[in-house]
Specification:
Elements: E1 2-6, E2 12-15, E3 19-23, E4 41-49, E5 54-60, E6 64-71, E7 73-78, E8 83-87, E9 90-95, E10 100-106, E11 113-120, E12 130-135, E13 146-150, E14 158-159, E15 165-171, E16 176-180, E17 186-199, E18 202-205, E19 209-213, E20 217-234
Parallel strand pairs: 13-14
Antiparallel strand pairs: 1-19, 2-3, 3-4, 4-11, 5-10, 6-9, 6-11, 7-8, 7-10, 9-12, 13-15, 15-20, 16-20, 17-18, 17-19, 17-20
């Protein structure tokens, strides 16, 4: 098993006043040639948007874009005709494909919204753009990982045009768990939302990330009440 550790304090950071953003991988004004992407995982931004603020209409193409609100709500509008609100406990996906315009704004005029913005390179380019969102309340489990994203439209969670699987998990202190990779030669990126746990002998804390390759299973030992996001992605595609 090979690992690469990204401590939370080593992330890129940009505070624009209305937007406070931490970048695990190179993004906008933050560039590190050693941290361009982890396999097909291109962007992992930890964003906080002030009340009444947001991202104006802008374009994307040939990228799978996943948003996971951690608190508050986002108002989404796109050139496909979708106007929706996504809140904590939901997941949004947009396949940009041949090209799409969209905007994202805090749905509250006063309270902050915090969310993860994740980009994954697609395995097929120039697909027809699409949008979807789901609630997690019917699939969430405690002390166990549960799937929120896959390549299969018929599976649990949202789906993307890539051989990728995302799982969330909320664990009590002292619980041990494991994750078996779905596809040979994929890698696993571990991102700690809250809490603390051990992975491969390494202690990970809040907002720490770790990329793991050359293994078929990863074991976790939870050392504090913890919430964790797992992102399994191809290393080559």
């Amino acid at each position: 098993m090979k690992t690469i550790l990204h401590k939370s304090t080593t992330r890129g950071h940009a505070n624009h006043g209305w937007l406070n953003s931490f970048h695990t991988f190179s993004f906008a004004g933050y560039y590190d040639p050693q941290r361009i992407h982890f396999g097909a995982l291109r962007v992992l931004n930890d964003d906080t948007v002030a009340g009444g603020q947001g991202f104006g209409t802008h374009p994307h193409d040939n990228m799978e874009i996943v948003s996971i609100p951690l608190s508050g709500s986002l108002r989404h509008k796109d050139s496909m005709g979708n106007t929706t609100v996504i809140s904590e406990g939901e997941v949004q996906v947009m396949s940009a494909g041949t090209g799409v315009y969209h905007s994202e704004h805090n749905n509250s005029a006063t309270d902050e919204v915090r969310f993860l913005q994740i980009w994954v390179f697609p395995e097929t380019k120039n697909v027809t753009p699409r949008y979807d969102q789901i609630t997690l309340k019917d699939i969430a489990k405690h002390n166990s990982f549960y799937q929120i994203l896959s390549p299969n439209p018929d599976d649990e969670g949202v789906w993307v045009h890539q051989q990728a699987w995302f799982h969330l998990g909320s664990f009590d202190k002292g619980v041990s768990s494991e994750y078996s990779l779905k596809k040979e030669d994929n890698g696993l990126y571990v991102f700690v939302l809250e809490g603390e746990l051990e992975v491969g002998g390494q202690l990970l804390s809040r907002r720490d990330g770790m990329g793991i390759t050359e293994t078929s299973q990863v074991d976790f030992k939870v050392t504090a009440d913890t919430r964790i996001l797992l992102m399994e992605v191809p290393m080559q595609w």
